Amino acid sequence: MLGAQQVRELQLIKPRGFTLIELMVTISLVGILMAVVAPYLGNAISNARARNVVSKFRQDFATLRNQAVSSPKLITLTLNSDCSWSASVDNAIVSAYSLASTDIASNISCSATNNSALPLVFSFTNQGFVSPTASFVFNGPNSQSWPIQILSSGTVVISKGAS
Questions:
Q1: What is the model's pTM?
Q2: Helix or strand or coil: residue 113?
Q3: What average pLDDT does the structure give for the chain?
């Protein structure tokens, strides 16, 4: 038999863990939240991947421009109509970027604007200048677009208002 002191100690001990009902309610709330958030999460991932392509183009362009200033070699960057590009030094391809190797190949496209036509071949001088000047647009998912202008100074301008 338990003494009065032992009974009081047992009454003070709180049960640990969750009841089955609490667990089921929590799991169903998480499921509802995931069902609501999943479409937005997919769009956010697609948008981030498309922004990454634009950023990668800008980085590659700047790298080639810097390389042209530091060496007397003929350096070019070719932007193709499928949004891929390749860099060459003295007519030998040294690097290439293709959307086919990424998940977003079907979500991004390129189009030239302002009397430009794809493919575009940019040539860098040893002073860092670029020819020709051109304008084109990277079109991403969800009606996003990144209008890009290449200036003769070698500057890549992404227009204001780009998504």
A1: 0.74
A2: strand
A3: 85
